[in-house]
Amino acid sequence: MNGVHVPLVTPFAEDGTVDVPSLERLAHHVLDQGAAGLVALGTTGEAPMLTGAESRTVIETCRRVSDEYGTPLTVGAGTAGTDDSVRQARERAEVADLLLVVVPYYLRPTDEGVVEHFAAVGAAAGVPLVVYNVPYRTGKTLRAESLLALLAAEYVAGVKHCPGSVDADTLALLAGGRDVLCGDDAFLYPMLALGAAGGISASGNVAPAALAAMVSAVRTGDAERGRTLHRSSLPLARALFAEPSPSVIKAVLAEQGLIAHPGVRAPLRAPAADSLGAAMDALAALDAG
Ligand SMILES: O=C(O)C1=N[C@H](C(=O)O)C[C@H](O)C1
């Protein structure tokens, strides 16, 4: 799990069904532009709003394209409960190379309960897990030692960390030595500079080359280039997340002609014209890598 992995949006056709040709076009585009792999059914893919059949269509489409490119496919999985997460992980692991498993949300279990949850899912899945730590969405903040324990587990390939800042726990995690992936687009460069292996970055849908260039600047020790790319991509990350994601991202992708329609599923809503305008301006000003 090195480099930038792109959590693809799930494009919908005008009638609201999953638009497979748009999804395929976008998947080819991001891999052509330097993404290291695809992520299906991430937050950006509106996973909670898809039916089981739609989820399978998205996974199969991403599998086909990943096989063409020889790149890894990570598939989102996990719900609030362990039994249901185990069932879903078993099913999705048949097609995925890795599973991106969200910290169980809403009930706010203890850290010990969360660690046991991942052990159960890891044992059932048979493919490596990426722990998706996103406290501002799940309502569950794990202690740094629990994150480090998960990072050290043999069934865990990495932690996708979305702290909203580079705080003390983030520093402890990055000092942990194994794969940490940044899940907060605005913090991609700072976390890479501190040793993160890469990122799962929604901005990669619209600017894959710039993010791939940032990774390569850090790898080659070109700090000045890395900082330049960071300064240039930060306004874009902010603009894309100015409204609940992925509504702005989809609107930009439709403007770019990469997907046919910008529609998102309720309760998400189309973004305000100003939000789209700000994102298009940030994209126009981007150092594209
Ligand atoms: O789709 C994802 O997975 C991502 N999740 C983060 C979030 O929205 O919480 C952001 C990241 O860019 C991609």
TrEMBL record:
Site keyed Part of a proton relay during catalysis: positions: 43, 106
Residues reported to bind pyruvate: 44, 200
Catalyzed reactions per annotation: L-aspartate 4-semialdehyde + pyruvate = (2S,4S)-4-hydroxy-2,3,4,5-tetrahydrodipicolinate + H2O + H(+)
A Pfam family it matches: DHDPS
Matching Gene3D superfamilies: Aldolase class I
Top-tier EC class: lyase
Subcellular location: Cytoplasm
Enzyme Commission number(s): 4.3.3.7
Residues forming the catalytic site: 132, 160
Protein keywords: Amino-acid biosynthesis, Cytoplasm, Diaminopimelate biosynthesis, Lyase, Lysine biosynthesis, Schiff base
Chief location bin: cytoplasm
PROSITE patterns linked to this entry: DHDPS_1, DHDPS_2
Pathway membership, UniProt: Amino-acid biosynthesis; L-lysine biosynthesis via DAP pathway; (S)-tetrahydrodipicolinate from L-aspartate: step 3/4
Subunit structure: Homotetramer; dimer of dimers.
Family, similarity comment: Belongs to the DapA family.
General function of this protein: Catalyzes the condensation of (S)-aspartate-beta-semialdehyde [(S)-ASA] and pyruvate to 4-hydroxy-tetrahydrodipicolinate (HTPA).
Stored NCBIfam families: dapA (TIGR00674)
HAMAP family: DapA
Name used for this protein in its record: 4-hydroxy-tetrahydrodipicolinate synthase
UniProt organism field: Actinoallomurus oryzae
Name of the gene: dapA_2
